[in-house]
Every structure is written in C-alpha cells, then in structure tokens.
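Quick question, first post here. What does this chain look like in 3D?
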Amino acid sequence: MKRYRTYLIALAIPVLAALVSTTAAQQEIEVAVIVNPENPVSSISSADLRRIFAGDKQSWSNTLPVFAVVRQPEARERRVLLRQVLKMTEPEYKQYWLRKVYSGEAPQEPVAVYSNGMQLEAVRAKRGGIALISVQDVRAGVKIIKVDGYSPGSPDYPFK
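> Answer (accepted):
Ran it through. Tokens below.
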C-alpha cells in the first residue's frame, strides 16, 4: 500500500507541474485587438478602445458604425476587457449595460459570443467589427491593430 501511494505521488507531481506551467503560459499570451480588414484604422488609443466597448463611441466614421464583439463571461479575453480596458467587474458591466440600453444611450450592448472562432467570424462579417482575441487564435480575414502605438509582441503592449 505504501509503495502504491509513493507511485501515485510520483505520477501526480509532473501532472501538477504541467498544469501550473500551462496556466502560467496562458497568462502570458497576449490579447490582440482585431478589426475587419476593410476598416481603415491601424491603431487605436486605450481611451478610444474604452469608449468603443463602453458604447460611447458608436461609429468609426460618419458612415461606418462600430460593431463590438465580446466573449462570454469567464473567457480570458473578457477578463482582459473588463479589468484592463473598462476597469469594471462582471456585475458592474452587466449593470452598466442594462442602464445604458434602457436609458436609450446605446441601442444594444456588445454582442457576446462563446468562442474566439465566433469572434473572428463576426468581425469578418461586419466592416465595423472589433474584438479582443488571444493572439494565438488570430486567423486570416481580420486585421490586428496597434494599441497606444504598440503591437502585440512589443514589451510595452498593454494586454498581456
């Protein structure tokens, strides 16, 4: 029995180490800001990004409405959006959008989707589309834009 426990512990240690390193690696993966490739924007300020996802900036130009796409709660991209862009908690975000929509300040809250693949498809489909997505999940058909002049991979890029 003692030998069996030793064997289980010996197996558990590498598994736990792998889980910890995977979690740490996930925390280091940057979150990119993507737009539709037809959008002429190539860079955005943190302030404008906040205004877009807060519903205060509703168009890129007079003729191109913003179409903001977010991940469902618990997704890493949503946590980055809430903590680093909007500086809100999930309950504050829900309350904020409830008030914003019912007061008539915004027609709707950003569209929430279940996966990064769905975000990609939504941004590809809408010229004014914008989303935050894990850099490793970016595919053809969208454009990564700079934030405050920095691209993902730069030491000063804000969304890690």
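Helices lie at 2-28, 46-53, 76-86, 90-102, 116-125.
The chain has one domain: 29-147.
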